[in-house]
C-alpha cells in the first residue's frame, strides 16, 4: 500500500527509503491539489471516462500529471470528456502549481472563474470549444508566464483588454469565433499564432498585428487596415458588380454604390477597393459666407441648407478627445461651404474619377444631391502636423481659377482631400475624349479661354499662395460652368516621399526635375508650356505615338515647326478657323518659351499671363473675331489654310 511521506521532511533516511520504495508504488501525494480536483469533479457533470478513484493517487488519475516528486499537479488535461456547466470557483484555482490546463471541447459555460488568477505558473490554457461567456477575464492577464492562450469558439463578449500586454511570454493568442467587440489593442508580445476572426471587432488593426494573414481577422464587423483593406471611415458597401465603370470624369451620374465597387474591381486594385469613397460627405450642409463671395459656387445644384444647431462644421465639433473621434476627424477649411457628417457617408454614391500615382479620386454624390470630389492619398510620408500645416496653407487659397480645397481627413490609415466637383469635366476629356465620334470639337475660343484661366490660376498659386502646383496636366485643368477653367490637385507633392516621382505624368515633367527631383515655379511653367502645346496640337504629351519616336511633345513641335511652321503642328480640328491662325502662332511662341530647357529662360507665370492677355485683347477688341462655332464653317472637313 502507498506510504505517504512528507516530502518536506528532508530526512536523509526517509528520503533514502522512499527511493528504495519507489518501484514498489510508494508515492507521495499532492494532497492539496487532490482535494481541489475532487471538489471540481464532484461539482461538474462529466463522462464516465473520468473515474477518479478516491483511493488511488491523484497523480495516476485520468488526465492528471504530477511533477517528478509527485508533490503537485502540473498538468490537467480533460479535453472532450463531457464536462457540463460552469467551472466551480475555488476548485481548479487552487492548483497553484499548475503549468498546463486543458478543458477544451466540453460544454463548460458561465464565466471563467476569477480565481484562475492564482494559477500564476500556468503556461498553457486551452478552453476552446466550450460555451463560456462573459468578458475576457482580467484574471488571465495576471498569468504572466502564459505562452499559449486559446479561448476560441466560446461565447465570450466585451473588449479584448489592453492588459493582455501583461502576458509578455505569449506566443499564441487564439480568440476566434467569439463575440468580442470594440477595437483591437496593440499587442506587443512576440506572437507566432494569432486569430480573432469571427468576432465583432471594429477599428484599425494595430501595426504589431499586421503581419498575420487576413484570415486571422476575417468575419469581424468592421476591422480594417493591413492585412485587411485600408480603413475607410465610410465603410464600403458590399460590391455587387453589374455595370462596367469608366473613369471618365465627364461621364454622367453613375448608379449607386455598386458601381463604385465595380469600378474598383475594374481598376484591379484590391486596396482601392475599399474606397472610401463612399465616404464622403453626405450630408452636406452648405453655408454661404458672404465674405467669401469671391469663392466660386460649387457647380452643383443643391439648395443651401442652414447649419443646424448642434451640427456645425466647426473644428470643435469634430475634434473630440477620444481616439475614435480622432480617427473620424474631417477637418473643414476656412471659408468652406460644406459640412459633412461622416455617418452620412454610407448614403453617398460614388464613382472613380481617376487613378494616379498618389491616389485615387472619387466623385461622391450625397443624398441631397450635392457632389464633391474625394481624393484618397496613398504613401503619404509627412507627419500629421506637417500634413495639417500644408492643408491649412492650401485651404487659404481662394481664386476663381483654382478649385478650392474644402476639407481634409487625416488618420493613420487614411488621408483624404475633399474639393468641389466640376461637372463639365477636364480639359483632357474635352481634348482627347472620344475623338471623331460625333463629339463637338473644342473650338479655338474655348481652348484659349481655358488656357488663360489655367494660367491665371497658376499665377495666383505662385504669387499669392507661394505654392508650386507640381502637377499641371490637362486632366488637372477643370471646366467651370461658365466655361472658364480652374486648376486642381495642387501643392500636395510635399506630402509624399522621394520615391514618388515629382510631377507624376512624364510628358509634362521639366527636364531638370528628373535629376533634382525638386519642383519649382519654373518647373510649373514648363508643364504649363506643355499644356499649351497640347491645346494647340491636340496631342497628349504622354501619347504613345510620341513616345514611340522617343521624343516629347516640345521636341516634336520644335522639329515640325523648324521645317514647316504651322500647318502640321496644329490640331486638325483647329485648322478650319483661318482667322485665328495668327493667334495660334503667337500662343505657340509663348508655349515654346515656357518649355525652354534652361529654367532661367522660362518666363514667370505673371509674364505668361500678361502676354496671353495682350494676345486676347488684340483679337477681341477689333471686333473681327468671328464666331468660330459658326456651323457654316464646314464642320468636319478641314480646310487647309
Ligand atoms: C481504486 O483503486 C484501488 C487501489 O488501486 C482499487 O483496489 C479499487 O478497486 C479502485 N476502485 C475503483 C472503483 O476503480
Ligand atoms: C524533489 O524533492 C526534493 C526534496 O523535496 C528536491 O530536492 C528535488 O529537487 C525535487 N525534485 C524535483 C524534480 O522537483
Ligand atoms: C489565491 O491564493 C491566495 C493565497 O495563495 C489566497 O489567499 C487567495 O484567496 C486566492 N485567491 C483566490 C481568488 O482564490
Ligand atoms: C498588468 O501589469 C501591471 C504591472 O505588472 C499591473 O500593475 C496591472 O495590474 C496588470 N494588469 C492586469 C489587468 O493584470
Ligand atoms: C451566447 O450569449 C448570448 C448572450 O449572452 C446568448 O443569447 C446565446 O445564447 C449564447 N450562445 C451560446 C451558444 O451559448
Ligand atoms: C466600434 O463599435 C462600438 C460599438 O460596438 C462603437 O461604439 C465604436 O465607436 C466602434 N469603433 C470604431 C472605431 O468604429
Ligand atoms: C482563424 O480562424 C478561422 C476560424 O476558425 C479560420 O478559418 C482561419 O483559417 C484562422 N486563421 C489563422 C491564420 O489561423
UniProtKB/TrEMBL annotation:
Keywords: ATP-binding, Leucine-rich repeat, Membrane, Nucleotide-binding, Phosphoprotein, Repeat, Signal, Transmembrane, Transmembrane helix. One of its GO terms (cellular component) is membrane. Gene3D superfamilies: Phosphorylase Kinase, domain 1, Ribonuclease Inhibitor, Transferase(Phosphotransferase) domain 1. The chain crosses the membrane at residues 260-284. Residues 613-632 have a biased composition (Basic and acidic residues). Coiled coil: none annotated. Its main location: membrane. One of its GO terms (molecular function) is ATP binding. Residues 347-615 form the Protein kinase domain. It is found in: Membrane. Residues 291-321, 613-641 are annotated as: Disordered. This is Protein kinase domain-containing protein.
